[in-house]
Amino acid sequence: MLSRHPHSRRRQRGLSIVEMMIGITIGLLVVAAASMVVSTQLVENRNLLIETQVQQDLRATADIVTRELRRAGAWNGSFKGVWYAGGPAPLANPFAAVSPASAPATEVDYAYHRSAGAEGPFGFRLNGGVIQARLGSSGWQELTDPRTLTVTSFTITPVSAPATPTKLPCPKLCADGSTDCWPTVTVRELVVAIVGQAPSDAAIQRSIHATVRLRNDWVRFNDPLNPSLVCPA
Fold first, then answer.
1. What is the pLDDT, as a whole number, of residue 190?
2. Domain that residue 204 falls in
3. pTM check: above 0.85
4. How many domains would you assign to the chain?
5. How many CB atoms lie within 10 A of CB 27?
6. pLDDT reading at 112 higher than 60
7. How far, in whole angstroms, is CA 219 from its chain's centroid?
8. Number of other CB atoms surrounding residue 135 within 10 Å
9. Does the pLDDT value for residue 2 go beyond 70?
10. Over the stretch 23-68, which tens digit does the pLDDT of each residue have?
11. What angle do CA 109, 111, 117 make, to 5 degrees?
12. Which residue in 131, 68, 59, 135 sits closest to 98, CA to CA?
């Protein structure tokens, strides 16, 4: 009768080296795929936050610029420019001028009566990737934050005025018997265009456009004999 030795037959316990290497490889592939997904999500989330910041800064800047430009030409003495029988000679609005008047520009200058002693000049301009605001005698101050927004383009474009402005009737004709010296009124609009990008990523760019209707129309005196008066004497 044959006896069986207890160690004559070896039994495998655990994993072999080949199985362990295969398992580790599969695990590394899973971890790498998960890491790529997480990394992609983090990058997209970061880009989304930066895009949102750039867009919000552009909207806030455009809102401030448009609200200010609407006030251009506001005059607390506007009643002095109204003609009526027996009244004094009408006067021109001293804050009527707005620059640019015809061609696009990277700076806009205007004035209006904000309060006593605060009539301007006011304006906005692009300087070194930053939009600056002029607050009268205080000089130029930064309106945009260069740490969150780099402005690459800031353009103010006057909308083409009508070829024939509307004439305001006067009680008398001009010296030559025509109405050429009568004052005219023009409705003015400006198009504000701003393009900006993220300081940390030039690939993230956004733009915004806004049309501003100036509340104070442009009244021009055209009498060469009385350039400071509305109507011929």
1. 93
2. 38-220
3. no
4. 1
5. 10
6. yes
7. 28
8. 15
9. no
10. 788 888 888 888 888 777 777 777 788 888 999 999 999 999 999 9
11. 135
12. 68
Q: Classify residue 177: in a domain, yes or no.
A: yes
Q: Which tokens belong to 39?
A: 């990394």
- Give the tokens for residue 169: 């009737």
Please check whether residue 31 lies inside any domain of the structure.
no
Q: Encoding tokens for residue 83?
A: 């003609």
Q: Which residues pair with 197 in a beta bridge?
A: 150, 205
Per-residue confidence (pLDDT) for residue 24, from 0 to 100: 82
Q: What CA–CA distance (Å, rounded) separates 110 from 102?
A: 14
- Is 26 contained in some domain? no
Helix/strand/coil for 107:
strand
Nearby residues of 66 by Cβ (< 8 Å), 6 or more positions away: 192, 210, 212
Tell me: pLDDT of 15 over 70. no
Q: Where are the beta strands (DSSP E) in 49-115?
A: 107-110
Q: Rounded to 10 degrees, what is the CA torsion of 179, 182, 187, 188?
A: 120
Question: ∠ CA 222-183-218 to the nearest 5 degrees?
Answer: 100
Residue 42: inside a domain, yes or no?
yes
Instruction: Report how far residue 96's alpha carbon sits from residue 74's, in angstroms, rounded to the nearest whole number.
Output: 8
pLDDT of residue 14: 64
